[in-house]
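Appendix B, Record 12. Input sequence as logged:
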Amino acid sequence: MKLFENKFFESMKSNVSLLDRITHYIVRRKGKQMRPMFVFLSAKMLGQMQERTYRAASFIELIHTATLVHDDVVDDSQLRRGFFSLNAIWKNKVAVLVGDYLLSKTLIISCKNKDFDLLEVVSTAIQELSEGELLQLEKARKLDITEEVYYEIIRMKTATLIAACCKAGALSVGVDEETADKMHRFGELVGIAFQIKDDLFDYTTSNAIGKPVGIDIKEQKMTLPLIYTLNHVSDKDRKWLINSVKRYNNDKKRVREVIDFVKANGGIEYTRNMMQKYANEALDILKEMPDNEYRKSLELLVNYVMTRDK
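Logged structural output:
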């Protein structure tokens, strides 16, 4: 990871001093860096680390960073991980251009090194990320998301990038297509479990993750606990729930009532069970892989996704 940080910073360098100042700001405010970990552990579980593996991790992190920068502009967010967002400091125009620059670096580095298999993996992830965001925007207006559509949204919005990490890591050490596809599915399942865990945070009384309780309800996001509850209550209660989310989403007392209602009607329990189901499927795929310390580390990462408190 230490070596990767240097390589990642190098991959962002440019001849424009403003860009270098901004990329330095980005690197210093890095998050958990779970995605590069998935790349490296997938690669080391299946073969010998290569320079291509570091490039694969850089591609994923460049894409991830670019999407966060663009998301902050779209959402008009002033903070990211407790620090000012790029758009808060350098305004929207600069932030959008920096996001574009980071995406273009992925293309340039991959083409220069003829990493066309890795480029295909990350390009598919970018496409699905955009489609997932647009599908959510389309469906959110009506508040009529089915469980099926919900899973499709989170598969594209969250899981596709973790799936790309695992597949790119596998491809970087020269595995066959079937093994690479299995690792892609493993990452997808972990990503879905990760997002379901995020949904649960909205219904906890702790603010440990820095996300206010009920924020998804306030933002009218259709998460799994709410979707399940809407589909398993009477028409009268369903109308009250939809009305609460649509018209009273800024009323703290009403939001609290919605949270209590979802808990009382099995929404949390069902969501926890579904998270466990996806995590177990992911662990089953790992059982087919070489039994070594890197596989054990991936198993630990899956369990961390389930038990994390932020």
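The first strand starts at residue 79 and ends at 80.
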